[in-house]
Amino acid sequence: MPIREYQAKNPPQGCALCHQPFEQIECMNQPLLDRCPQCGAPLTRLISAPAVGASRSGFDARAKSAGFSKLKKLGRGEYEKQY
C-alpha cells in the first residue's frame, strides 16, 4: 500500500492536520483525497521521491547471504575479496 502525502491547497485555512504536509496510507484502488478528513478543507497531493534501494548496506548483506562475492580494485589487475 502506498503512502501518499497531502497538504491544504491554502494552508492558512487548514486545520492542524492539513496545515502542514501529512501522510496517508491508502490502497492502490482507493481514490485520492480531495478534502481534509478533519476539517473538510480542499487538499492537494504532494509529489515525493520514493525510497527504493536507499540502503546499500542492506544490498550488501543480501548479496553476501545469497553467496555472491564482492571484489575491490586495488591496482592494475589486482583485486581484494571483500566477502
Question: What do these coordinates show?
Answer:
The chain has 83 residues and is α+β, with helices and mostly antiparallel strands. The model has no long low-confidence stretch (mean pLDDT 84). The protein has a 3-stranded antiparallel beta sheet, with no helix packed on it. Strands 4-5 form a two-stranded antiparallel sheet. The protein has 1 helix and 5 strands. 12% of the residues lie in helices and 28% in strands.
Number of strands: 5
**Major sheet strand order:** 2-1-3
User: What overall form do the CA principal axes indicate?
Assistant: elongated
How many domains would you count in the coordinates?
Answer: 2
- How much helix, percentage-wise, in residues? 10-25%
Strand content: 25-35%
What is the makeup of the main sheet? 3 strands, antiparallel
Low-confidence spans: pLDDT under 50, at least 5 residues? none
Helix/strand class? alpha+beta
Radius of gyration: 22 Å
Q: What is the mean predicted local confidence, pLDDT?
A: 84
- Tally of helical runs: 1
Straight-line N-to-C gap: 35 Å
Helix and strand element order: EEEHEE
